[in-house]
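Checklist before submission:
- one chain only
- standard amino acids only
- sequence pasted in full

Submission:
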Amino acid sequence: MTRAYAAVDLDGAVADVRHRLHHLEGERKDWDAFFAGIADDPVHPEGLAVARELAREHELVYLSGRPERTRAATEEWLARHGAPAGTVLLRRDGDRRPARLTKVAILRRLARERPVAVLVDDDPAVCRAAREAGFAVMEADWSRPDQTLFEAQERLGET
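Returned file contents:
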C-alpha cells in the first residue's frame, strides 16, 4: 500500500537557525557563512517529534528552501540528530523564487504521485499559500520566523 506524503520544513521547524541569522542582517548578506552554519543548528525538539510521529504512517519528505549545494550538510545534520528517514527536497541552486512559490510547486508535483497528507512549516506565507492551494497545513508554532528569516525566504528567495 502506498503511503501519503507528509512534507516537513527544516529551517525553523526541525532545525533552529537563530544562531546564524546574524549573517543575513544588514545590507550585505553572507549566504556562504549562513549555510556553513547548518552543522551547528540545534534541533527543535517539537519539530523532530512531529517528524517522527508523521513518519510512522506517511512517506516523509523534508521540504526545504535550502539550496541544493547544502545537501551533504543537511543530510549529515538529519542523521546526526536521529531524524526519521525521508526524501530531502531542496531548492535548485540559483532559484530565487519566494519559498511560498517553490514549496507549493513541489507540493503540487508530489500530489501528482500520491496524496500529500500535510505540510509542516513555520513560515506564515508558505502556510497560507499551501492552504490556498488545497493542502492541509500544520503550522510550526513552536518557532515563528523573525523578520530576517522571513525576508530571506520570501523576498530574497534563499532559504
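Reviewer check: The mean pLDDT is 91.
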